[in-house]
Specification:
five-stranded parallel beta sheet; Rossmann fold; single chain; Helicase, Ruva Protein, domain 3; 3 domains; 19 helices
Length: 359
């Protein structure tokens, strides 16, 4: 049974004993681990209780499938519900899990947590869990901007601090590829603040969390603005190793947004050097402006809606191409490259329309 967002939140806080096992999977490996740990703490109270928590790698169960059922049916020495946690699962565990679910029908004594990477809809393990009433399925996709904003704000508030709007926007643009990495970066920022209880400022966010992605994506953004498909494919292949596709799209949208007020001032007669002299921090696009300006003034298809915001374009493209596809580059790189390129080229003409609207 696949759980929706509201069901997931309730289940993580209070695991329903009617579910004997849960499959947690998805492209965001950090979120997979985090949710597995949340369930473990909710049942056993900690992650390292030797009497109530037992962990295995998938290969250990694959070589000895009976062990999974044995561990699920074992009685804890000190009493209380137990957790059997399996990491790195794949379809090779389908047979062992089928045997488990046939005999282990509740988590009154033990909950079995199976953690894995992304599974296609045809995956035998995913089909098994989705089709079993007493098994739960939790999918973990990369945080979208709205949920990422709430995640960052919540972690900062939990530490007794606040965060400025511009600092929050900067972090949303810079993070989000992996839930574990995001939390680690926010922890680093909180340590950097030390005993200072003032709100986190943009300068502090920039000083602590480097915006390396902005520099890595300069050539990619130039390729999109110029419509150079060959260069776009090359830059996509180079950047996808380090950055999820959705993060690249967000970065591109943010870069276009920074150009709007600058080009407005140029159209009003100000000189380029004068505009740059008044810019600071992430608002300045740097030396790439002369290259981006003519690219944003090229004609584009009239079918593009000039009233949409640049943040809508990546979302629109991602709805056509499921987020799972955008992150399956290791298995189907060509398909993802095509989907991402289409999303990027939706964004570029949209921005050229918006920038030319007042000409």
């Amino acid at each position: 049974m696949k759980l929706d967002r509201s069901q997931i939140d309730r289940f993580l806080k209070q695991p329903d004993p009617r579910f004997a096992a849960v499959l947690i999977y998805g492209p965001d490996s950090g979120m997979v681990r985090e949710r597995g740990s949340q369930l473990t703490r909710a049942i056993a109270g900690s992650l390292d209780d030797p009497f109530r928590v037992v962990e295995f790698a998938a290969d250990q169960i694959k070589s000895d499938p009976v062990r999974l059922l044995d561990e699920a049916q074992a009685i804890g020495m000190m009493g209380g519900r137990r957790v059997v946690r399996i990491s790195g699962a794949g379809d090779a565990l389908s047979e062992a899990c089928a045997g488990l679910l046939e005999q282990h029908r509740t988590s009154q004594d033990a909950l079995v947590i199976i953690e894995g990477d992304e599974f296609a809809s045809k995956s035998s393990l995913r089909k098994l869990f989705e089709g079993t009433p007493h098994a739960a399925v939790i999918a973990c996709y990369h945080d979208e901007a709205e949920s990422l904003s709430g995640l960052i704000r919540g972690q900062v508030q939990q530490a007794g601090l606040g965060i400025g709007r511009d600092a929050l926007d900067y972090l949303v643009q810079s993070l989000g590829g992996d839930r574990g990495v995001t939390r680690s970066e926010i922890d680093k920022l909180l340590i950097y603040k030390g005993d200072d209880k003032t709100d986190i400022s943009l300068a502090e966010a920039m000083a602590c969390i480097g915006d390396g992605a902005a520099f890595a994506l300069d050539d990619l953004i130039d390729a999109v603005c110029s419509g150079d498909l060959k260069a776009l494919d090359q830059q996509f292949d180079r950047n996808i190793v380090e950055l999820p596709a959705i993060v690249m799209l967000r970065r591109m949208a943010a870069h276009f947004l920074r150009l709007h007020p600058i080009l407005d001032r140029l159209r009003q007669g100000e000189k380029l050097d004068q505009v740059f002299a008044t810019l600071a921090g992430p608002a300045a696009p740097g030396a790439s402006l002369p290259d981006l300006d003519p690219g944003c003034r090229r004609p584009c298809p009239q079918s593009v809606d000039r009233d949409r915001s640049p943040g809508d374009a990546p979302a629109c493209a991602c709805k056509r191409h499921h987020p799972a596809r955008l992150h399956r580059h290791r298995r189907d790189g060509a398909a993802v490259a095509r989907a991402w390129r289409r999303a990027a080229l939706i964004l570029a003409p949209l921005e050229r329309h918006r920038l030319n609207a007042t000409d």
